[in-house]
Design goal:
The protein is an alpha+beta fold and about 325 residues long. It has two domains: about 10-145, 2-Layer Sandwich (Beta-Lactamase), CATH 3.30.450; about 165-320, Reverse transcriptase/Diguanylate cyclase domain (Alpha-Beta Plaits, 2-Layer Sandwich), CATH 3.30.70.270. The chain has helices spanning about 10-15, 15-20, 35-40, 60-70, 70-75, 85-90, 140-160, 170-190, 205-210, 215-230, 255-270, 300-310; strands at about 45-50, 55-60, 100-105, 115-125, 130-140, 195-200, 235-240, 245-250, 275, 280, 285-290, 320. The strands form three sheets. A five-stranded antiparallel sheet has the order 2-1-5-4-3. A five-stranded mixed sheet has the order 7-8-6-11-12, with helices on both faces.
Length: about 325
């Protein structure tokens, strides 16, 4: 029987490499029967599981037991596939002497998954037959938590960057990006069309002066909620800043279809907004342009919609087509 007799740090560090690299002349070699095996693997902070050639668990270290909430008696003689996906296990086996490390999960006693970095090292006989396999794995739960925190922060920052903080609507930058997509689509598909509607809240400043900024902010939120009701999922509603909203109507095939939507929106502003104890009416000016003008640049679309916006106050509507 072959056994490592010393317990030096060097022996601990090279234990598993030694098992695979030694010229094994003893056909009855079994790491489980080596007195120092359990002692050495218990000094390792990562999970260590020793398997037989049939993938049954022969030995585990204390780190593994603590990690998975099992007792030693509950794990020994069980299949490794009770806690590890079989496909991942085989993916992590050494090929051509290259130690492959993969990301996988271990299954705890309560069926909770633990993210791990896994590497499997076979112990071979002189005939290159697998006698045992050493599974070493590192718990990366904290790494995953940090990664998720970074993703959440990135998503939050992206949302703040792309959306108006008050209404939650896309901001001007996203409006322009969506407008570019709509314009590109008309260039690729001649049957596709869109209209751009700009809405200016004429009396927002008056509301702010009379009722205060909190009521004015509440009004902006109410307006955005009301506008959403008249648009479908293909349209884009954005707050362009201050008292101006922008709408991209992608569902209409002509300016007449867009006008129907505009009339509904126009009519909606004839009804008051309920803000706490106040009923607030607000006047708006709207201007629209359509893609049938064969625009090549987004800037030209916004320019013409702005020009239409400035022609007539409500109830008249300026259409640039």
């Amino acid at each position: 029987m072959l056994c490592l007799m010393n317990n030096s740090p060097q022996d601990k560090n090279n234990f598993f490499m030694a098992l695979t690299q030694l010229n094994l002349e003893f056909t009855d070699f079994n790491p489980v029967t080596c007195p120092q095996t359990q002692t050495i693997i218990n000094t390792i902070r990562d999970s260590v599981i020793l398997l037989d050639k049939d993938y049954k668990i022969l030995m585990v270290n204390q780190t593994t037991l603590n990690l998975l909430d099992y007792s030693e008696q509950e794990l020994v003689n069980r299949s490794i596939f009770d806690i590890l996906n079989e496909k991942d296990f085989h993916l992590s086996l050494v090929e051509n002497s290259i130690n492959r490390i993969i990301e996988t999960t271990y299954l705890k006693k309560n069926n909770q998954k633990v993210p791990m970095f896994l590497s499997n090292q076979p112990i071979l006989s002189n005939q290159q037959d697998i006698m045992a396999i050493i599974c070493t794995a590192k718990d990366i739960s904290e790494v995953k938590k940090i990664e998720q925190l970074i993703k959440d922060n990135e998503a939050k920052l992206y949302h703040e960057f792309c959306n108006d903080h008050l209404t939650g609507l896309p901001n001007r930058q996203i409006f322009i990006e969506e407008l570019e997509k709509s314009l590109q689509k008309t260039h690729e598909d001649t049957s596709s069309s869109f209209s751009v509607l700009l809405i200016d809240l004429d009396s927002l400043e008056i509301v702010n002066n009379i009722y205060g900024s909190l009521v004015a902010d509440n009004l902006l939120t109410k307006i955005s909620d009301r506008l959403k009701k008249y648009l479908n999922s293909q349209d884009t509603l954005a707050r362009l800043g201050g008292n101006k909203f922008g709408v991209i109507l992608n569902h209409s095939s002509n300016s007449e279809g867009s006008l129907e939507v505009v009339k509904v929106i126009e009519e909606s502003f004839s009804r008051p907004f309920q803000l706490n104890d106040y009923e607030v009416y607000i006047s708006v000016t709207m201007g629209m342009t359509t893609s049938k003008e064969n625009y090549q640049k987004v800037e030209d679309i916004v320019r013409d919609a702005d020009a239409a916006l400035n022609y007539f106050p409500l109830p008249k509507l300026s259409i640039n087509n």
